[in-house]
Amino acid sequence: MLEVIKVHKAFDRLLAVDGVSLRVPKGQIVGLIGPNGSGKSTLLSTIAGQHKPDDGQIRLDGQEIGGLPPEQIFRRGLARSYQDPSLFFRMSALDNALLPAKDQRGEQPLVAPLHRLWWPQEKALAQRATSILDDLHLLPQRGKPAADLSGGQMKLLELGRTTMGAPQVMLLDEPTAGVAPALAYTIFEEIERLRRTQQITFLIVEHRLEILFDFVDWIYVMHMGQVIAEGNPATIAADRLVREVYFGE
Amino acid sequence: MNIDLVATAIALLTVFGIASIIALSLNLEYGLGGIPNFGQALFVAIGAYTAGVTYTRLLPLLAGQAALDPCGATNMAPALALRTGILKTMPAVALGNFALTLVIAGVIGGLIGLVASYPALRLKEEWFLGLVLLVGSESVRIFVRGYEPIICAHNGLSGLSQPFAWLPTAQIRSLAFLGLVLVAAGLCYWYSERLARSPYGRLLKALRENNAVASGLGKEMSRVRGQVMVIGSAMAAIAGVFFVVNVGFASANDYGVALTLDIWVMIVLGGLGNMRGALLGALIVTLLDRFTSIAAIQLNMLHIDIEFNYVRYILFGVILLVMLRYRPQGLWREPVETTGVGAGEPMRAEPRV
Predict the structure, then answer these.
(1) pLDDT given for residue A238 in this prediction
(2) pTM to 2 decimals?
(3) Residue of A84, A91, A144, A169 to mutate for B, most B C-beta atoms under 10 A
(4) What's the count of helices (H) and strands (E) in chain A, helices before strands?
(5) Nearest-by-CA chain B residue for A130
């Protein structure tokens, strides 16, 4: 379970995250919505270690992770994706998928020249990465530079790449931004499949509420750095404050 | 014009071998790792300065003789005679001293490379980091030029011969040294190429493209940055030892911005991130350099009043501009796939759950 307890994060005089608390139970898909500038992405970045929280606690399965560097948080089982595709564009799709795998023997500079010591592991990881790419209909692109993929394919690759690190929790920042509705549903179907088959827990920032509401178990609504509402999709859709703040009604 | 073709070929190959090691070192750091080391000349100089110290202080000790201060008008000649005498008559000492020089230079170069990697952690803008390294390199050069104990300040230090002075003829000595250079270059190429085509090479590419995202994927990128600087700097320092004993004379002026420019032209021309490209670039630059030197001599002999040696700077500048504008990947493009695990027979995906 991911717990965020009264976290604050400010940049100079801008209080981007103002005492936010939320819980993401194991195996659930939780949505995080709110107008632009409400602090959603900053919250995700703070949870993932890109920013150090000014105050509050962030716990993963009871262990405090607030303030740890991003690489340590990833190794503890929490991964994130970004609003803009953050692939390694000059690398192939397969290389992008292989990078997050943990404990790669060939990543040591004294072992790397000795091909025999890491090749069997590399082949096994490539088998797994190929499966991921196949699930995402990206197998034909595996040898191509990531820069050659379409926007939607990049989003899928970024989602698939992150699962190579075997995360327990994934933070997704607008995973369907800029993609066609049909592909947006495909992305969420893939998220649901990962939840079902690998018991991955998700916290998802998303603006496409018509798709998000079909898949999430719980929703938090942020506005001006604070959580102003939480509930199941039906409750949130009917909430007057949410409708006023988010939809301007 | 009388040219000894064999001697010229040996000399060219020797310079090419040394240039290859230097080019490979920078290609690891910048071509793959994205670290803009505009101070690479410093690390080559470390090798030269190390040789300056070992040849004057360590060599006599290994030969069971007292070291002489190599600098100053009265000391220079006896110290030079001592060095030359040992190198010509004691092969084990000559080779042992050379081997130790390589090791010491590699260690010092690597340590300084590690220190130099720390600014890279704090400087977000690439160009600023490049400037810091360039300024560092020039500062050390100016310091050494005024500080006598290393290589006798601006006078320089002669008698730093390659370790085969005890062999009977000049050609045999040159061939033996060429052999050693090519073995060293071959080992450096093997190591660099293996690193580049391994998961470690994948890490370096991630460092180059997006360090923050790579950290978010669990990779300790500050450690990787430090490692590649250690490896690249150690290689450059080792090349510096070969460089100075090939010339036979150590002068701080040989390790300035012009040398850094040469190295950058090699890797930009040959192919950033491609180790074979680095060799190609080193070969082309070596040939162009030799061509301009010969042309300068010929024009001088014909009493034509053009300083052709400076043409090389114009030429290299034009090469850099043209390559960066029209073919930034270089003559030999970096392979897209890192380890090649995806090549060959198409893999079958694991059954979908």
Answers:
(1) 87
(2) 0.90
(3) A91
(4) 9, 10
(5) B349
